[in-house]
Amino acid sequence: MKYNFETVHKRFHTGSKKWDELSANGVGEKEDIIPFSVADMEFVTAPEIVDAIKDELDHSIMGYANPTKEYLDTVCRWMKEHHGWDAKPEWILPAHGIIDAFFDAVKIYTKEGEGVMLMTPVYYPMYHAVNYNNRVLVDCALVEKGNSYQIDFEDFERKASDENTKMLILCSPHNPCGRVWTREELEKIGEICLKHHVLVVSDEIHFDLIMPGHKHIVFASLSEEIADNCIVCTAPSKTFNLAGLQTSNIFIPNPDLRDKFFQALKRCNPNLKCNILGYRACEAAYKHCGQWLEEAISVIDTNRKLVTDFMAKEFPQIKVKELEATYLLWMDWRGLGIDSKELERINHEEARLFFDEGYVFGAQGDGFERWNLACPTRYVEEALERMKNAYKKYVK
User: Fold this and answer.
1) Which of 166, 191, 194, 328 is surrounded by the fewest CB atoms within 10 Å?
2) Whole-model pTM?
3) At what angle do helices 276-288 and 69-83 cross, to 10 degrees?
4) Tens digit of pLDDT for each residue in 308-324?
């Protein structure tokens, strides 16, 4: 490989939530253990991005900065070349993060007491966007089918047809289930939401992290009619591990929806912009780091196969869901017959494994674990060995 996917920079006492959890559980440098929880990578940042940031620091003033024409054109070119979507620069509004964007969308396009639909289990801040803003959660549960999940479209349309349901927050690709929704599935979602006047806010933050054999479809690329009824939220933050630079690109093709979003944000912040270094990092990533992404996906896929094969051999009671996208492996541990809180204790105290607990993704996630695979393979191998030793006395 051209790039370094072996080095880990340990982030104890740096403000990293996932590494602070290790400290809180008594893990120190000597144990050489990494967390597999919060969705940021344990890969060294692509050198082209680091060099671009250093160049900005050497030759610029860290003042206010708006996105340049070159920046906007670069973002649109990435969408065209990697996703086949001919997006326009004028559709882009900046946001510090996609969570910010879908929280804002809930407040801007719906009223208190109105319904916002989620396909669950789902990324937990989406629940917060609904509940913290006094909207009604419309829970459209995904259906487990083998090692994957399907949409119950009969239930979906029934809930979309309720006149109080005003919005769908779509997670595409889906987190934590790892699904890449097919064109047919997305078209059906789009048609139902158009029919029943449900606005779609599509969180596509994992859109570049697609495993071999699968293809992501940008929701707004399906048709002009669907594009006019949606907001597409993208960022380089998951793809290139840049979340700390707080730079996202929110596409709103419909000029009326875009103006409403912009005018509402201006009432809170009349000078919308992101981090100057975030703009520079995003531009460098989209211009120069395609090969880095390909190699990162290769490592993630190797780790996926390693965990899947291990579980099938050593712990067949644990069912690993198919990973079509993201670097977050969704695993059903219910077959072990161990309560979820006890699982968490065993993993932390005995196996020294730190995942995202499935219950944080909603009731359907209870008994599941989400394993972040964006790390050097040797750490996955060592973790599996610790797991094997720790669970010998619990599994017959």
Assistant:
1) 191
2) 0.96
3) 40
4) 999 999 999 999 999 99
